[in-house]
Design goal:
It is a single chain. Strand 4 and strand 5 form a beta hairpin. This protein has 22 helices and 7 strands. It has a 5-stranded mixed sheet with strand order 2-1-3-5-4, covered by helices on one side. It has a two-stranded antiparallel sheet with strand order 6-7. It has 2 domains: 31-346, no CATH class; 393-559, no CATH class. It is α/β, with parallel strands linked by helices.
């Protein structure tokens, strides 16, 4: 057995170690814009401004991960990088999920140590785990807390005791404070519990849910009460931007659900086999297997329905559905343990076949890591230094953010742009999020004229607009997302075109406009032209305000000599 454990650790562990290391080497200097929205709220809290987007202005809730905001504030106050802290917390969370899965397989189902190691490794082998750890989002941390809450939900359904009810309430509340859709777990659990009690004709036992329900009502009530006082509303701005769109099915959400299922096909298939297995077999643990799988099925279906309705923009690594991965693994442990146990018993006297079993497991669930190692080594040979790598949108915005943060009095400059993450965090500028995630008025208003009037009344000193490679304005999420629809407003004539930041590949370019009457007009123009832009077009090829480009005259791109553009 010791030899088998060592073989399993080597065959599974080495590709995992190399795969995670390859990702860290290649992507450590990459940033994900959305993560810095959370960091700006946490920084304002750390600086004594409270939870607000623009210090001194009305509070707004542009995040959905309250607990991470609170957690990061002390670290920012102490001078630590919130991205590094969140990454380390994510790696710790992945390890925590692996430990839970390992312990569950060993203690509840009597799996051998090699089998338990392989089951635990599934969370590390999941297609997007490594990448999501590097984004700096709450995704992986939330997945851990949701898994713990799911575990206590299963244990409560099995034992119906007070301890598990209390723990269920506590961890469900923590999960809700990280992502509000965690409430779906409690509703699904209560529904499953109700069906069980109806079938047993024991509805009076529904009272055993009281401890967890009280915890959720009391703590949730305090939290909602504070939100009502602080933000003067209960729902975050993201609800109005992503959910309250009027459409029954969001095309973006439907794609996200499909992408998650298509990238986790094998795990989903194992879960379906586990469902059939548990519904047709009884073991010494009674109904616990059924409860786990049925609860997992209910949670997966409720998640799918919820996100099919949601505009899941920036769904890197299937981050919205990813928290289901550990739940699917947890629910599939019975069939994994049974199948692997049978195979191990069959090869008991054929020791040479055991490495074949582990290699086959890795080929089935971890083939991605072999290609990742090869791909990252190849990229390292081409781009040995971060500065030589291909520039993508968020890296360009990171460069802009670090440079613009050195502009004198940048904290007093009013900037309007829809990518409200890395640039507002590093600059500390007064920021209008044109998408509306961090602006309550834009998030909740649907009248185009009122929204456009609000934008121009805000009087941004600098406006950054995204354009496609064909020089048309992009369409983004939010009620002001159709930029072409209001590009012809004559009030745009108050702004001067300064230049362009070109972004590689399929991403949109960034166009800079400075308000002519701004107190920062001349110094900001000089700064942008000297240190930010890659160049400019002559003549300007964008329709904006009363200006329309001459279609007969092709624009000439002029690279800035000092920008390397």
């Amino acid at each position: 057995m010791n030899r088998r454990v060592m073989l399993t650790l080597m065959i599974v562990g080495i590709p995992l170690l190399l795969g995670f290391t390859a990702d860290m080497v290649q992507k450590w200097d990459h940033v994900f814009d959305d993560a810095f929205i959370t960091y700006r709220y946490a920084k304002n809290l750390a600086d004594g401004h409270g939870i607000t987007w623009n210090p001194g202005m009305a509070p707004t809730e542009g995040y959905t991960n309250f607990l991470l905001v609170i957690f990061l504030a002390p670290f920012i106050d102490l001078g630590y990088d919130p991205l590094l802290v969140t990454r380390l917390l994510s790696y710790f969370s992945v390890f925590g999920m692996a430990v839970i899965l390992f312990a569950r397989a060993k203690r509840r189902y009597g799996a051998t140590t090699p089998t338990a190691i392989m089951i635990a490794s599934l969370i590390l082998l999941a297609p997007s785990t490594s990448a999501l750890c590097l984004t700096g989002l709450e995704t992986v941390v939330y997945a851990l807390v949701l898994l713990v809450a799911f575990h206590f939900a299963v244990e409560f359904l099995r034992s119906q005791d007070t301890t598990n009810s209390v723990l269920l309430g506590i961890f469900t509340m923590l999960a809700i404070l990280l992502r509000p859709e965690a409430a779906l777990l409690y509703f699904v659990m209560a529904f499953v519990y109700g069906i069980i009690l109806v079938r047993k004709k024991q509805l009076h036992r529904f009272a055993s849910l009281t401890p967890s329900l009280l915890i959720l009502l009391i703590l949730g009530g305090v939290y909602l009460g504070w939100k009502a006082l602080h933000f003067e509303q209960l729902l975050p701005n993201s609800f109005y931007i992503k959910v309250a769109t009027g459409a029954v099915i969001s095309k973006i959400g439907l794609v996200s659900v499909y992408h998650f299922l298509s990238t986790h096909t094998l795990l989903s298939a194992v879960f379906c086999v586990s469902l059939l297995f548990c519904l047709s077999h009884h073991d010494r643990h009674g109904r616990s297997d059924k409860l786990s799988v049925l609860l997992g099925l209910g949670l997966m279906l409720s998640y799918a329905v919820f996100f099919i309705k949601t505009d899941t923009h920036m769904d890197v690594g299937s981050r919205f559905m990813y928290p289901l991965v550990p739940v699917l693994i947890y629910s599939s442990i019975p069939v994994f343990t049974t199948a692997m146990g049978e195979i191990e018993n069959w090869i008991k006297e054929r020791a040479v076949l055991f490495p074949v079993l582990v290699v086959a497991f890795m080929l089935a669930f971890g083939s991605k890591y072999s290609t990742k190692i090869y791909g990252n080594v190849k990229r390292l040979l081409i781009y040995p230094y971060p500065s030589e790598r291909s520039s993508w949108l968020m890296q360009e915005e990171y460069r802009i953010a670090k440079t613009l943060s050195t502009f004198p009095q940048i904290e007093n400059v009013r900037i309007a742009f829809g990518d409200a993450g890395v640039i507002p965090y590093f600059t500390g500028a007064v920021w209008l999020d044109v998408i509306g995630l961090n602006d309550t008025f834009i998030a909740r208003t649907r009248k185009q004229d009122a929204l456009v009037d609000y934008f121009f009344r805000w009087q941004a000193d600098l406006v950054i607009k995204g354009s496609d490679k064909d020089h048309s304005w992009i369409t983004t999420q939010g009620p002001l997302g159709d930029h072409t629809a209001w590009a012809g407003d004559p009030r745009w004539d108050e702004y001067s075109y300064i230049g362009t930041s070109k972004v590689d590949k399929w991403y949109y370019d960034l166009q800079y406009f400075v308000r002519k009457s701004s107190q920062f007009a001349q110094p900001l123009t000089d700064f942008l032209r000297a240190r930010i832009i890659n160049g400019w077009y002559a003549p300007m090829p964008f329709h904006i305000g009363s200006y329309s480009p001459d279609n007969e005259t092709q624009p000439t791109w002029i690279s800035h000599p000092e920008s390397g553009g």
